Amino acid sequence: MTTATTPLTTHKVGGRIGAVIEGVRLGGDLDAETLTAVRTAILTHKVVFFRDQSHLDAESHEAFGRLLGTPVAHPTVPSVDGRYALGIDNDHGGRANQWHTDVTFVPAYPAFSILRAEVIPPYGGNTLWSNTAAVYASLPEPLRVLADSLRGVHTNDYDYAAARPEARTAALEQHRKVFTSTKFQTEHPVVRVHSETGERTLILGNFLQKLAGFRAADSRAIIDLLQAHVERPENTVRWQWRAGDVAIWDNRATQHYGVDDSDDHERTLRRVTVDGDVPVGVDGRRSVLLSPESVPEPSHGIASGASTDGSLAEAA
Ligand SMILES: [Fe+2]
């Protein structure tokens, strides 16, 4: 097979995270050389941005996702049109204005998320990402040692009312009902060893409920201490969307935050997630699903990859 000589260029956006890639037309037909360059850029910069990808539709978005891995459905939220794309709209209560890593309430949460902007408001609606490998590396050594030893329990059944006191709308209540239709609890190491880069990254964020072995107040204080480093502006990048943009992030090495400041203007994005592996801590212990006994296939008829690698029998 001949390899195309690609004019791909990469420009960093922030000092510690984020790069814009130019000269690539995303799709299921991307040549191997360009694909390798894109994957390497994602692993290096943690989130990469592409402008002018309006040619993508649900099918080609998913086809491109298959080049990075196996697309997976959200464990509880139904997909758009039976495909592996999840709608991220601001009119159904599913706003993401909390720092989080996607789907950490299951063991093998997604490796990559690919977000495509369809409708962007005239102002606001930016997304921020933080590089948790850089965060970990920047911690004082005693705090790294502490973090290495911690395990955290993540759930999708977190307290929405406390998180979103201003937004008790019928739409939010309905979204919550769907989002928590199966209630998951998973124990992860707070520090995972990234299976592709070998870096140590943090598993924290909004789905983290408590640290194993701590009283609630101590657990909260330690989580807040670590999370504050994740949210330091130096560890983040902020993206101002245009319609047709695509952002791809390494979900194993980032947290992100969708800023909810575009009032009632429409904001519609589509996300395809790609199957991840079960995290392993620095002590070699893997993540464990606490409940339910297994990750059920979503009722909406397409497979979730959340339970595909036999991890659920692994209790260390
Ligand atoms: Fe998200």
Automatic annotation (TrEMBL):
<protein>
    <recommendedName>
        <fullName>Alpha-ketoglutarate-dependent sulfate ester dioxygenase</fullName>
        <ecNumber>1.14.11.77</ecNumber>
    </recommendedName>
</protein>
<dbReference type="Pfam" id="PF02668">
    <property type="entry name" value="TauD"/>
</dbReference>
<keyword id="KW-0479">Metal-binding</keyword>
<keyword id="KW-0560">Oxidoreductase</keyword>
<dbReference type="InterPro" id="IPR051323">
    <property type="entry name" value="AtsK-like"/>
</dbReference>
<feature type="domain" description="TauD/TfdA-like">
    <location>
        <begin position="7"/>
        <end position="273"/>
    </location>
</feature>
<keyword id="KW-0223">Dioxygenase</keyword>
<keyword id="KW-0408">Iron</keyword>
<dbReference type="GO" id="GO:0046872">
    <property type="term" value="F:metal ion binding"/>
</dbReference>
<dbReference type="GO" id="GO:0005737">
    <property type="term" value="C:cytoplasm"/>
</dbReference>
<dbReference type="InterPro" id="IPR042098">
    <property type="entry name" value="TauD-like_sf"/>
</dbReference>
<comment type="similarity">
    <text>Belongs to the TfdA dioxygenase family.</text>
</comment>
<dbReference type="GO" id="GO:0016706">
    <property type="term" value="F:2-oxoglutarate-dependent dioxygenase activity"/>
</dbReference>
<dbReference type="InterPro" id="IPR003819">
    <property type="entry name" value="TauD/TfdA-like"/>
</dbReference>
<feature type="region of interest" description="Disordered">
    <location>
        <begin position="290"/>
        <end position="316"/>
    </location>
</feature>
